[in-house]
Amino acid sequence: MRREAIAWERAAEVNAAARGWRRAGAIDDATHRRIREAFPDPCVTPGAVWRVLTGAMVAAIVLCTLAAMALSVWRSATQLQVVLLVWGAACLVATEALEASPRSARRGAAGATSVLGVGLFLLGSGLTLVETVGLRDDDAIDVLLVAAVLTCGLAAWRWGGPLFAGLAAGALLCGLARLPQGRLLWLLAGAALTGAAAGRLDDGRLAPSHRLGAAVLTVLGIGAVYAAANVYSLDEGVLEHLARLAPSRESLPRGARLAAGAATALLPPAVLAWGLGSRRTFLLDTGIVLLALSVLTLRHYVQVAPLWVVLTLSGALLVILALAVERALRRARAGEFAGYTAEPLFSDERRQQALQVLPVVAAFAPEARAPGPDPGFAGEGGRFGGGGAQEKF
Amino acid sequence: MAHGGAPGSRDVNRDVVRAIGRLRADGVLSAGQADLFDRVARRGLVSVRFEIRALLYAGVLLVTSGVGVLVAQHHQEIGPVAVATGLLLAAAICLLWVARRGAPFSWGEVPSPSVAFDYVLLLGLLLLAAALAYGEVQFTVLGPRWAHHLLIVAAAYLLAAYRWDSRTALGLALTTLAAWRGLSISLVPAATLGPGVAADLRASAIALGALYAGAAALSARLGRKAHFEEVFANAGLVLLLGGLLSGVLEDYRAWTLWLGALLVVAGGVMAVAFRLGRSLYFAAGLVAAYVALVRVLFEPFRYGRHADSIPLLLAALLGAAVLGVIFWAHRRMRDR
Which of A2, A237, A365, B244 yields a CA-CA distance of 20 to 30 A from B292? Predict the structure, then answer.
């Protein structure tokens, strides 16, 4: 990343923290103003809506011009590849120019051009490999995955986007899954990724967005280890389906299933313990998700109770657990226990509450009744909605 | 100074930690302020409020799914009366808990007494809705007008939203009311405002959208639950602009009329949004107008040699103009 861009990001971090302090009423307007003056952030940083709108419109412009050009000059596959590569390169150059100016670096346009640039470059490269160079599909996929790792890795290093860090790691893992012993490679690569990235999470020499990228890589590394070690994934050969050659089920080492079972049981609590010990909430969240996946795996193999009992009981347990944690933290001395609190601290509570409407409405809104004239009561075919359940009677 | 940072870690958010040190030395922050901020920046004190909310949400999702599976798979063994009574009882327990814990009614914004409050209310309302739906299916109280039970459910959600000041309940009320009219405004729509939309559905969407937008304006103007304005307005704009846009894209005989109506409404929405400083409303109006105008650009080139490339270039030019509008509006609007 450019030295100036890192400095802008650092100032933005301080300003974001100061906004949180002001929102929580921990500082007054005058103090907030003095902090902004002490750490001036020269970048124009619109709100999320403006950034998304700008990014979407830039994407529309780029794609419309690309489509128009491709339709006009499309006389051979080579011309299409050239157009894609030229447009990709143009987007990357545009990103570089946009990122250089504090007036345009954070408006959403640079994000759109960087994603489009990398995407178009990879698409053009893929078509070139298959149609011009004449590589077989499998070979082209391998080369393309290597290109994706390099391109996304470079983009993450140059522009600091955590999305690119995640895409590079995803491409790397996909590439490893295609090799012989892909599962073992996932275990090793996941562990290595976690170890390397976790060590940089607090590295003050890194730009804030690179530290965020390290967090993304840590989560992906843990996810890769879990996916490789999960007993259901082993039994179903989930990773082996990605391999170049058909999976061979006989080559499973003895004791592998037992080890996978143990890993399925032990990894989530280990990640939770790591999260609790280091007080990193993203590790706690990862641990919770892995725990849920392990419970689902257990339910797949051990059906101790009917589905409705499992669902209702686990839901009730979650609610009780959440209530107990919240109550314990609220009643603890000064509202905190072992460095944890249920208070929002300096986060934007009002914004979080407004945003929580979306997933709730998405999950629980009833299905629209069939359009047209009222069909009348359908008896046994009626639908049971509104309770989150969509089962037919 | 003892920072009480995260165990086994070096400085955490170094940029903020360094800044706090400098601000303290410069006298911008008091010692008390700096100590607290420093502790949070070093992860010496961490909030798990989001995690508690996520657990509660997942819990409610699982419980309602479990109840749904139970009723669907075993309702004949249990018996309809027992199922309906059980659901009503469970809903009543949740709602009684909410009623006991809830703050007195106010037309202003009322903070939740606890993190769990909203989720127990949600669980109670969903169970009540399930009981009403189940009762209607089994006992056919409304007869051929069975779909009207959605109206009753929406009314219950709306009452709860106002009584206990819940945006979530209001969101459910608005989507349920839309579902009663055959419309979906959830994040994964059931293609109700997509291709092939029926004229009566379009009319319902526009009418309901206008109603919601009116409710948003009234909420803000009268100061009656003014913070509900965003929920009303966003749902209303999705329906209103979506309905008009479906007319532009789907009604081949009268699309120009729909276009005129859409441009007038979108322009009005953008003007009001600009005046009030609401970026999301402005974006909704702008996107709807852009999509409608792209339709106009493609119309003269439906047939011909450059049927595809010229309108695409024009759409790109239009996009550039829209980008100019975005930059202009962002510079001048209050909500930035």
Answer: A365
Q: Is A334 left (phi over 0), alpha (psi -120 to 50) or beta?
A: left
Sorted by where each begins, the domain ranges of chain A are: 306-347, 357-393
Q: Do B279 and A364 touch (CB under 8 A)?
A: no
B98 touches A: beta carbon within 8 Å: no
**Which residues have CB under 8 Å from A3's CB, separation 6+?**
none
Domain final position from B30, B46, B62: B46
- Helix ranges (H only) for A24-76 are 29-38, 48-73
Residue B189 lies in a domain: no
CB contact under 8 A, A366 and B65: no
Candidates B223, B40, B303; CA nearest to A336 is B40
State whether B198 and B336 are in the same domain: yes
Put simply, whether B85 touches A (Cβ < 8 Å) is no
> What is the pLDDT at residue A367?
74
Which of B135, B157, B180 marks a domain boundary?
B180
Q: Binning pLDDT at 50, 70 and 90, where does residue B194 land?
A: very low
* Across B7-20, average pLDDT: 70
The Cα B314–Cα A68 span in angstroms is: 9
Mean per-residue pLDDT of chain B: 87
Nearest to B8 among A26, A278, A361 (CB): A278
Question: To the nearest whole percent, how much of chain B has pLDDT over 70?
Answer: 90
- A10 in contact with chain B, both atoms CB, cutoff 8 A: yes
pLDDT tens, position by position, B271-294: 999 999 999 999 999 999 999 999
How many domains is chain B built from?
3
- Alpha-helix runs per DSSP H in chain B: 14-25, 31-41, 49-78, 80-101, 117-139, 149-163, 167-180, 199-222, 229-250, 255-276, 279-298, 309-332
Instruction: Say whether both B104 and B175 belong to one domain.
Output: yes
Query: Do residues A102 and A42 lie in contact, with contact meaning Cβ atoms separated by under 8 Å?
Result: yes
Say yes or no: B204 and B334 in one domain.
yes
| Tokens describing residue B135 | 């009762």
Full domain range(s) for residue B287: 194-336
* C-alpha separations of B297 from A69, A139, B102, B310 in Å: 17, 43, 55, 9
Q: Is residue B207 assigned to a domain?
A: yes
Q: Is there a domain that residue B121 lies in?
A: yes
Asked if A368's CB is within 8 angstroms of B182's CB, the reply is yes
